[in-house]
Structures are given as structure tokens and as C-alpha cells.
Write a structure and sequence with these properties.
There is one protein chain. The protein is an alpha+beta fold. The chain folds into 3 domains: about 200 residues, Aldehyde Ferredoxin Oxidoreductase,  A, domain 1 (4-Layer Sandwich), CATH 3.60.9; about 180 residues, Aldehyde Ferredoxin Oxidoreductase Protein, subunit A, domain 2; about 140 residues, no CATH class. It has a 6-stranded mixed beta sheet. Strand 16 and strand 17 form a beta hairpin. The protein starts with a strand and ends with a helix. The structure holds iron/sulfur cluster (SF4). Iron/sulfur cluster binds next to loops.
């Protein structure tokens, strides 16, 4: 189990310390629970997200490194994109490296006077000048640090690309291969600290208590993961398995959420990508599923005889963001765009939503060739999008610099808020299933599809498995999000949420010496919910000003057109319930 150790690193003084906080971990378990409490106690209210005081928190949970598919690391920070709670989750080897280093959380603050990368080996921290890798792409940085063999044991390398260095508000942090802290601008926070990369490794060996019990639980999770049809699908096609089913129910965002049906969905489907473009499948450490799919892109050298090839991760969300929603119709074009985004180190969803806003803004005459420096934006025009991305990378003019700040910023400055498809200033995930998806994006603490998966409620209603009931839908969204706070405190990959039932979670916790009852988990998830919302509200998130982007009321979702009156009432019910959750927590 994790050992309650927190490492604090100060980039201003190049000092670090490690201390234990059993009370914190005892109360909040780990992962999102611990990170939320740490961020709350730091009182970030008056802190500029890109100032030296702004913290970066990484946290793992008590099942990491022990049971399969407990593979995530939680990053918590003040989001430069939204100005309030920043939270992003990533897989890869990071959790394993922290576990092997004996660290349950890492807090980084301060600002280095020059570019640095940090190497953490167990409890030791080295600060290295990063001049030679500053300016390198996120992919090249990983290769360079890997070849320099920094660290011991199973290393994890997390780093930013040029987008983070430029403090693009939608910059991500790449984690190992094909995983990212993709949302809410963590890359800009790294960049603001002159922090190019962190390499983490550890040499601890772990002893298993009560081997028979551990073995029973391990085998159950392992075989459930390997045999379940849902997980098999993740293995075979990965998340792009969702492209065709969503298209079939009119729920695949197309041309800036103008419709839910993309005429070329077959070409971008998991089936086609797998059959014709898949180069390799990989897995996060300690996961038998291996859902990460890397596509291959071949490009000729100038002689047109020899080729170079690149591997590019593709998942459902990147396919939606840089594919269907921009009307990109071929896998080659999609992979080329994804390759640029991956190298620059932008969060792919916010990038796609911003480009789709820009295209519609151009079509409507809100922006023109003056802003784009002569480029004409049209949905489906891959060559122009390629140029736009490089202009953004190079911050060619004021407009391209602005695009780096995401769709909400651009819509505020240039206009077109009604078709800037973001929720709480975070670019929309790829679902146009209906009101529950959108309500989940709006009210979820991260404004992510992974907060409460409202799209799956919509899908049930579309399929006739559940009937419409606005009040019950709100309750189900809150219930789902609160259970996920527990899974995220244990940092379990949410793809395994059906395997990690409440009974299994209690049993697994018990096996590592954490004895909890169902009621205690419920109380904890409420407390976490309240804390997260308090952070959001303290930092300017206004519960009285919540609304869907106006365009969404005009489009046919998978469930048909939304009734604005009903949606408004649902938003109002939801906010009342959030206020009640906060009040209850304050009364405790
Ligand atoms: S299912 Fe996929 S994302 Fe989840 S842990 Fe396994 S490889 Fe990683």
C-alpha cells in the first residue's frame, strides 16, 4: 500500500523535502481525495495560475502498484484555462514510478530562473538545466531524456512541448507513450515554472501482506478484465470502437456540433483504423487490457523512394476533435493533424473545439483573412488546418497567439460565444447524445465526459432502457460522479469501473489494511464533492450563470432537440443540490 509520503519540491530554491501525513491519507484515501484536500488547504483563491506560487500536485492511491488497472495518477492545479479547479488524470508508468519511489504525492511549486528538468530517484531530487531540450517537441523530449538514461528502475517521463513553453492555456503534459494530462492547461503551469520535464523512478521493493487474500482479489480483477466483452472491445479496437455506434444514433459531433452524423465515419472508425493503420498496441503498467492504439503514418523523403514512419496514439476523443468535428475524412489526414498536436503538446480536445469555433467564425464573417493571415478556413480542409496549427505553434500573429488560449477566450474576444462549444470554458468532449451528456459536462467538477458519463444515460434513454425523468436524471448524474470520486481516489482507470464494484473496492481496501464501510465511502465522496465545488466557487465559478452554448438548442441530438425550459430547470435543480452538498459539508 502507499505509505502516506509527500514530496515537496521548490523550484525557486531548488530544494525538496519528504514528509509523512497519515492523517490526510487516512481521511481521504489518496488520488483525487488527497489532492483535492491539499489544493483546498493551499488556498489558491488569489493566486494567478501561472505564478510561481501556483502548485502542481500529483497523487496516487492505496491500490496503485498492487491490483490491475489501478493505473492513474491525478494531477491537481489551478487551471489557467478556467481560472478554477484544474484536475487531469493520466495513465502510463507514472503511478508505478511514484509507487516504486515510495511517494504517494508530489507537490511542485516555485519557479526556476531558467529552464530545468527534474529527476526524482526515490526520495532524491536532481535539478538539471534544460536549455538543450527547451524548444523540443514533446515527443523528441521523451526520446532525449530516455537516451540520457536518467533515473533508475522503471522510469516515467512527463514533459511539455512548445505549447507549454509558450504557456498556451490548452497545453497538456505528455506522459510516457500515448498518455497525457490532457485537460485544463497543466502544460502552461509547467511552462510558467520553466519546468520542461520530470523523470521519476524508484527502487523500492514491496512486500505483499496476506498473499492468499491478495491473490484471490488480483485474479478476480485480472480475469474479469481479460474475459469481459466490454474490456475485450477496448483491447481490440480501443475507444474508437465508439465511432460507428455513436454515428448510428446521431450522436457523433460533426462540423462544430452542427449534427450528430458524419458521412465519412466508416473511414475514421475503430474497425478501419485497426485493420489498416494500427502499428502497435500498448498498455499502462499493470493493465492486462492494453487499450492504447498507435497508428502509423508513413511519409516519403524527398526522393519519394524512402519513407519515414511515425507512431501516433489515436483514441475516440482525438478522432472526434481533430476528425469528425472538423470534417476530416481520411485517416492519413487525421493522423497528420494528431501528430502535430502531439508534438506541440496541446490538449487535443480543446485544440479541436477551438479550430471548429474558428472555422464557423470564419464562415460567419466574425473573423477573416486579416486575422488568419490570408488563410481561408473551411471544414474538411486538411491542408489549411495543418498550416493553422503550425501558425499557432509559431505564434505567427496575435490571432494565432489567441487560438492558443482556447475557444472560450477567443469567443470572448472575437465573438461567436453561441457556437463556441465549451462548458465552464473547457472544450466539449465528443458526444451529442442529449441533455444528460451536456449537463454532465457543465456541472461536473472537471467539465469532462469522465465526471459522470451523462452520455451513457442518454444512450439508455435512446435505446428505451430508461425513461425520461429530468429530476431522476440529475440525481443519477450526481450519484455517478460521487462514486467516481472514490474510484479516482484509488486512481482506478475508469474503463474498469464495472469491474471495481463497491464490494470489490471494499474488499481490496481491506486487503491493504484500510477498513471501510459502504457508508463511510459515501460520506467521503460527498466531502470530496463539496471541497471541489468550494475550490471552484472560491475561484470565480458562478453557479448562477450556467448555460449550454446556445447553438446546442438548435441541433438534433441523439435524443432529438432539447427543450430549453426543461434544461434550465435541470440546471437549476442541479445547482440547488450542489449548494446543499456544500452546506451539509460545512455543517459537519
Ligand atoms: S484500459 Fe487502457 S487506459 Fe485503462 S489502464 Fe488499461 S491500457 Fe491504460
Amino acid at each position: 500500500m502507499t505509505n502516506n509520503k509527500i514530496m515537496r519540491i521548490d523550484l525557486s530554491s531548488f530544494k525538496s523535502e519528504v514528509y509523512e501525513d497519515p492523517k490526510l491519507f487516512g481521511k481521504y484515501l489518496g488520488g483525487t481525495g488527497v489532492a483535492t484536500k491539499l489544493l483546498y488547504d493551499m488556498n489558491i483563491k488569489n493566486i494567478d495560475p501561472l505564478s510561481p506560487e501556483s502548485p502542481i500536485i500529483l497523487a496516487i492511491g492505496p491500490l496503485n502498484g498492487i491490483y490491475p488497472i489501478a493505473t492513474k495518477t491525478i494531477a491537481m492545479f489551478k487551471s489557467p484555462l478556467t481560472g478554477n479547479l484544474g484536475e487531469s488524470h493520466a495513465g502510463g508508468r507514472l503511478f508505478m514510478s511514484m509507487y516504486d519511489a515510495g511517494l504517494s504525492a508530489i507537490v511542485i511549486a516555485g519557479k526556476s530562473p531558467y529552464p530545468v528538468f527534474i529527476v526524482i530517484k526515490d526520495e532524491e531530487v536532481e535539478f538539471h538545466r534544460a536549455y538543450s531540450i527547451w524548444g523540443q517537441s514533446a515527443l523528441a523530449t521523451e526520446r532525449i531524456l530516455h537516451s540520457r538514461a536518467e533515473g533508475v528502475g522503471k522510469r516515467s517521463i512527463i514533459r511539455i512541448g512548445p505549447a507549454g513553453e509558450h504557456k498556451s492555456l490548452m497545453a497538456n503534459v505528455s506522459v510516457d507513450t500515448g498518455r497525457h494530462f490532457g485537460r485544463l492547461g497543466l502544460g502552461a503551469v509547467f511552462g510558467s515554472k520553466n519546468l520542461k520535464a520530470v523523470v521519476i523512478s524508484g527502487s523500492k521493493r514491496h512486500k505483499t501482506e496476506n498473499f492468499a487474500k491478495f491473490n484471490k482479489i488480483y485474479n478476480k480483477i485480472f480475469w474479469d478484465a481479460v474475459k469481459s466483452p466490454a474490456m475485450k472491445k477496448y483491447h481490440n479496437l480501443g475507444t474508437p470502437q465508439n465511432v460507428l455506434p455513436l454515428n448510428k444514433i446521431n450522436s457523433l459531433p460533426t462540423r462544430n456540433f452542427s449534427q450528430g452524423f458524419f458521412e465519412n465515419a466508416e473511414a475514421l472508425s475503430g474497425e478501419n483504423m485497426s485493420e489498416n493503420y494500427l502499428a502497435q498496441q500498448i498498455a499502462c503498467a499493470n493493465c492486462p487490457v492494453g487499450c492504447i492504439h498507435l497508428g502509423v503514418l508513413r511519409e516519403p523523403f524527398e526522393d519519394n523512394i524512402h519513407y519515414k514512419s511515425f507512431k501516433i496514439p489515436y483514441d475516440y476523443e482525438p478522432i472526434y476533435a481533430m476528425g469528425t468535428n472538423l470534417s476530416i475524412s481520411t485517416p492519413e489526414a487525421l493522423l497528420k493533424l494528431l501528430y502535430i498536436v502531439e508534438r506541440a503538446g496541446w490538449g487535443v480536445m480543446e485544440t479541436g473545439v477551438t479550430l471548429s469555433w474558428a472555422t464557423e467564425a470564419f464562415e460567419r464573417g466574425i473573423i477573416g483573412v486579416k486575422e488568419t493571415d490570408g488563410l481561408v478556413l473551411n471544414f474538411g480542409d486538411f491542408e489549411t488546418y495543418e498550416k493553422v496549427l503550425y501558425n499557432m505553434w509559431n505564434m505567427k500573429n496575435e490571432f494565432y497567439g489567441d487560438l492558443n488560449n482556447g475557444s472560450a477566450f477567443c469567443a470572448e474576444k472575437y465573438g461567436g460565444k453561441e457556437f463556441a462549444i465549451n462548458f465552464g470554458k473547457n472544450g466539449s468532449p465528443g458526444y451529442i447524445t442529449g441533455r444528460d451528456a451536456f449537463l454532465g459536462f457543465l456541472m461536473g467538477v472537471r467539465h469532462s465526459h469522465l465526471d459522470s458519463a451523462g452520455y451513457s444515460l442518454d444512450e439508455k434513454i435512446i435505446k428505451g432502457e430508461m425513461s425520461e425523468d429530468p429530476s431522476a436524471e440529475v440525481d443519477l448524474l450526481i450519484k455517478e460522479e460521487e462514486w467516481r470520486f472514490i474510484l479516482n481516489s484509488l486512481t482506478i482507470c475508469l474503463f474498469a469501473r464495472k469491474i471495481y464494484t463497491e464490494d470489490l473496492v471494499l474488499e481490496a481496501l481491506d486487503s491493504v489494511g484500510i477498513h471501510r464501510k459502504s457508508e463511510q465511502l459515501k460520506n467521503l465522496s460527498r466531502r470530496i464533492h463539496a471541497l471541489k465545488y468550494k475550490i471552484k466557487i472560491d475561484n470565480g465559478f458562478d453557479l448562477d450563470k450556467l448555460e449550454f452554448p446556445e447553438k446546442l438548442y438548435r441541433v438534433q441530438t441523439g435524443r432529438g432537440k432539447m427543450d430549453k425550459g426543461v434544461v434550465r430547470k435541470m440546471i437549476s435543480d442541479y445547482t440547488s443540490k450542489i449548494r446543499e452538498i456544500i452546506r451539509e459539508a460545512e455543517d459537519e
